């Protein structure tokens, strides 16, 4: 295997449009990392700016439930991002393989996700792309929030304009094309994530983007018989179409369901 810095490069564990992610092992400590290799030559200035923004944001964030950025290396044509490796893969794949989680397991995962997102918001970072595919698991099945490619710095009270993220996880205000409060769209996405953990499917769906949009704007979703009342109450407060009534981070943390 070839070397990059102090790392032996191994198998490919992910592929994007202009990047590839490889598993690598530190030559002396033998610890495993994930190295994202980005081809600068295939990027325009705007993309490079976005990647540098993602790097700057990741450098700021040090939290047990957020993928750590250890090192950045550059050559003329490539950028190497050395990050923590989460060997358990995506929560999305975990649910596809094992089905929905019982509420005790879902609560443990959700608390970890909430602590990571709450920390981001305290650091004035909004993630804007929270979804089951961007939540990774380590060998102990602890959650690691990943992929800050759409994240942004947002001071309290500041409204954002750029519409990002994955449509099934997007808050209604994003579909209305308005300026929006960054943390509130993350909180909506947390509602989708919690639903996915507990139910094993998405609350809002549609054959087309148009159908999905009307489903999200209507804010109506199926509550299966096995969902506890407290869990339903929390999800309803997270997936509140009225931004001003949507639950705050503080109230998520102190919610009854979170204490069970």
TrEMBL record:
Keywords: ATP-binding, Kinase, Magnesium, Metal-binding, Nucleotide-binding, Phosphoprotein, Serine/threonine-protein kinase, Transferase
Keyword Nucleotide-binding: yes
Species of provenance: Helobdella robusta (Californian leech)
GO MF terms, alphabetically ordered: ATP binding; metal ion binding; tau-protein kinase activity
Residues that bind ATP: 36
This enzyme's EC code(s): 2.7.11.1
Domain of life of the organism encoding this protein: Eukaryota
Protein name in the entry: non-specific serine/threonine protein kinase
Cofactor: Mg(2+)
Family to which the UniProt record says this protein belongs: Belongs to the protein kinase superfamily. CAMK Ser/Thr protein kinase family. SNF1 subfamily.
Record has Metal-binding as a keyword: yes
Domain Protein kinase: 7-258
Principal EC category: transferase
Any one biological process term the GO annotation gives: microtubule cytoskeleton organization
Organism phylogeny: Eukaryota, Metazoa, Spiralia, Lophotrochozoa, Annelida
Gene name for this UniProt entry: 20196150
Coiled-coil segments: none
GO CC entries: cytoplasm
Pfam families documented for this protein: Pkinase
């Amino acid at each position: 295997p070839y070397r990059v810095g102090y790392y032996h490069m191994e198998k490919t564990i992910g592929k994007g449009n202009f990047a590839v992610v490889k598993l690598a092992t530190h030559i002396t400590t033998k610890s495993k990392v994930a190295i994202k290799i980005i081809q600068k030559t295939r990027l325009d200035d705007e993309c490079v700016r976005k990647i540098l923004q993602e790097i700057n944001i990741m450098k700021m964030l040090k939290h047990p439930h957020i993928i750590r950025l250890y090192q950045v290396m550059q050559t003329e044509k490539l950028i190497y991002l050395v990050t923590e490796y989460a060997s358990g893969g995506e929560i999305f794949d975990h649910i596809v393989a094992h089905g929905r989680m019982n509420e005790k397991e879902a609560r443990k995962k959700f608390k970890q996700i909430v602590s990571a997102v709450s920390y981001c918001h305290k650091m004035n970072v909004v993630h804007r792309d929270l979804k089951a595919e961007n939540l990774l698991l380590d060998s102990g099945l602890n959650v690691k929030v990943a992929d800050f490619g759409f994240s942004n710095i947002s001071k309290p009270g500041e409204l954002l304009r750029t519409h990002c993220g994955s449509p099934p996880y997007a808050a209604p205000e994003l579909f209305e094309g308005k300026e929006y409060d960054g943390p509130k769209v993350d909180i909506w996405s947390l509602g989708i994530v919690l639903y996915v953990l507990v139910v094993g499917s998405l609350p809002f769906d549609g054959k087309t983007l148009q159908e999905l949009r009307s489903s999200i704007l209507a804010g109506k979703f199926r509550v299966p018989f096995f969902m506890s009342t407290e869990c339903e109450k929390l999800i309803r407060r997270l997936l509140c179409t009225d931004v001003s009534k949507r639950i705050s981070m503080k109230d998520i943390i102190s919610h009854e369901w979170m204490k069970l």
